[in-house]
Amino acid sequence: MASPRQLSKPINKPALPALHHLSSWQGSSSLPSAVMETRFLILSDTHATAYTAPQQYADVALHCGDLTEKSTLDEFRSAIQLLEGVSAPIKLAIGGNHDFTLDTPLYKQRFDQASPAQQKYFKKEYGDVGEARRLLETAGITLLDEGTHHFRLQNGASLSVYASPHTPIFGYWGFQYPREQGHEFDITGADVVMTHGPPRGILDETYRGNEAGCTNLFGAIAQARPKIHCFGHIHEAWGAKLVAWQDTNVESSYSTSVDEKKSVIINSLKGSQGSEELMDELKAHQHEGYYATSHCTGDPNPIQQGKQTLAINASIKGRGRHRFQLPWLVDIELPKTD
C-alpha cells in the first residue's frame, strides 16, 4: 500500500487579512492549467472541549460542525477561542446536530413555543435567535449555510466549497432529517465538500459495526467527485481515505461506484488496529499534534480530478486514552484565480 508523502518544513506565515467570500461569483467551468498548492487544516466535533489546535499555518481552516456539546453561548465562546488560535487567514465552519441554536427555524420554533420563564432561561443559556451565529461572524469565522460558496484565496487560488450541516435524525438535536425520507445534497462544481455527517460506507462505522452514513450523501459525492470531502459526526470512524471511483453509469452504490483495489487508506482508527505500519505512523503524528498528508503533483498519491476523492473524518473528541484525535493538515492543488 502506498503511503502519503510527509509534509515538508512547517510553514510559519504571518496572519493575512480576510479573504473574499463570493457566494454569487460565477467562475469558468473549465479548470485552468495553472494551479496553486493550498494547505487546509481540517477538524470537526471539538464539542467545546479543552482542545488546542496546532500552530501550523494553513491557507484555509475548516470546521465540520459540533463546535459545542449543548449549543450554549459559553460553549460557542470556547469554540471561538479555539478557532481564534488557528493560524489561517480564512476560517470556515458549519453547524452540527449539537449546535442546534444555529438551526434558526428549529430554535425559533422551540423559543416561540416556550413559556415566558423558559424563554428567559433560553436567552441566558442559549441567547436570542441568531445570537450564536453573530458571535461567530463577529470573531471572523464564516458560518456556511447549505449550498455552494466561492472564495478567492490569498495564495492566488480559487476555492469552491459545498457545505451542508444536515444529518439523519439521532436524538433531539438540530439540522436533522428522517433517514427514510432522505435529504437532497445538490453538489455542483465544488473542489471541497464540507458536511457534518459521513457518506454511507466511508469512514462511518460505529463501535457496534454499523454504517451510520447517509446513502443520499454517498450518491451525491459519487456523482460530484470533489477533491476533498471532509466531515465528522461518527467520532470512532476518524481517518482519511483516498477513494478511487469506478467508471460506471449505473445507480450509485458503494460496490458499483468505489474501486476498492485502487483506493488508499491514509490512516484510520480502525485501520491502525490491524496494521503495524499504520499504527506506527499514527503514533508519530500524535507526537506532532496533527496528521499531515499531501496529494499534489509529484506526491505518491496526487488527487486525480474526477477519478478520486480524499475523504476525511476529522472528529477531534475521542474516548478514553484517545481523548483528542488528530486534525488533518492537507495539501492539494487548486486552480489559480483568473
Summary tags:
disordered N terminus; alpha/beta; 16 strands; globular; Purple Acid Phosphatase, chain A, domain 2; 6-stranded mixed beta sheet; 8-stranded mixed beta sheet
Widest sheet, order of strands: 1-6-7-10-11-15-12-13
* Main CATH class: Alpha Beta
Helix content: 10-25%
What's the name of the CATH homologous superfamily?
Answer: Metallo-dependent phosphatases
What is the ordering of alpha helices and beta strands?
A: EEEHEHHHEEEEEEHEEHEHHEEE
Written overview of the protein:
This protein has 338 residues and is α/β, with parallel strands linked by helices. The protein has a single domain (21-335), classed as Metallo-dependent phosphatases (Purple Acid Phosphatase, chain A, domain 2). The protein is 21% helix and 22% strand. An 8-stranded mixed sheet has the order 1-6-7-10-11-15-12-13. A 6-stranded mixed sheet has the order 5-4-3-2-16-14. Strands 8-9 form a two-stranded parallel sheet. It is globular and about 60 Å long. The chain starts with 19 loop residues before the first strand and ends with a strand. Mean pLDDT is 89; it is low at 1-32.
